[in-house]
Amino acid sequence: MAKVVARATTRVAASPDQVLAFLRDYQARPQIYTSNYTAYTVEEGGEGAGTVIGYHFAAGGRERDYRLHVEESDGVLTERDELSSFVTKWTLAPATSGTAVTIESSWDGAGGVGGIFEGLFAPLGLKRIYGEMLGKLAAAVPA
């Protein structure tokens, strides 16, 4: 079973503090989600570390439910699924006139031939979805 990693990065015109404030607000987060995400709920908290969110995700003919616990350290938001090995990290870095924002997800892939295809195609699909989310983030956070 190999680790599968999907990532996308973009520049947002706002400062790292502004972007982090938006991302930490899990009540506002659905603004940047694509139609792949449904049944979104904030189960505990709602701002930064300690928040628990849930959603249903569908893409590439696959669907599953997630229940994620939010951790925060040095401006990095980490969302860990309690139902699987799935982990998403939002990383911010100062950039020329704004912030470089990276979203990266990883999980333990399937074994065998199915795992080979998962490792090839899942990251491509998620990169497209994450690119759309990052575009929405750039529009949602004013400079």
What's the topology here?
Blueprint: E1 3-12, H1 16-24, E2 37-44, E3 52-59, E4 62-73, E5 76-81, E6 87-95, E7 98-108, H2 112-140
Antiparallel strand pairs: 1-7, 2-3, 3-4, 4-5, 5-6, 6-7
Structural descriptors:
single chain, alpha+beta, 2 helices, 7 strands, 27% helix, globular
What is this structure, in a nutshell?
This protein has 143 residues and is an alpha+beta fold. The chain is 27% helix and 45% strand. A 7-stranded antiparallel sheet has the order 1-7-6-5-4-3-2, with helices on one face.
Number of helices: 2
Order of helices and strands: EHEEEEEEH
Report, as a whole number of angstroms, the end-to-end distance.
42 Å
Helix amount: 25-40%
Class from secondary-structure proportions: alpha+beta
Question: How would you sum up the major sheet?
Answer: 7 strands, antiparallel
If strands are numbered along the chain, what order do they take across the biggest sheet? 1-7-6-5-4-3-2
How would you describe the shape? globular
Number of strands: 7
Arithmetic mean pLDDT: 92
Percent of residues in beta strands: 35-45%
Describe the structure.
This protein has 143 residues and is of the alpha+beta class. Helix content is 27%, strand content 45%. It contains 2 helices and 7 strands; from the N terminus they run βαββββββα. The protein has helices at 16-24, 112-140, and strands spanning 3-12, 37-44, 52-59, 62-73, 76-81, 87-95, 98-108. It has a 7-stranded antiparallel sheet with strand order 1-7-6-5-4-3-2, with helices on one face. A hairpin with a 2-residue loop joins β3 (52-59) and β4 (62-73). The mean pLDDT is 92.
